[in-house]
Amino acid sequence: MLAIKLGYYRKQDWEKFISLIDDKESMHSTWYEWHEAYNKSKKELEKQGFTVIKTVVDLEKLIEFCSERKLKNIGASRAQFIQQT
Asked: Which of 51, 67, 59, 49 shows the shortest CA–CA distance to 16?
């Protein structure tokens, strides 16, 4: 079975996370909306036969990752970070 890492943002980190990202306009308005979408994606991937690995995002490490690579903190960069953690 193929495994996929899915980034997970903790509720207590949400406000800080939003303040750090460069694509706020494409992100969910609240953690609850995001969490609902996360669960939906997770279930869909599992239905397709994937094993989903919940990967809690360490915001400090994410900042460092983007900074070292001179990347904007956008969805594609975060996906790259999650796959490497």
From this structure: 59
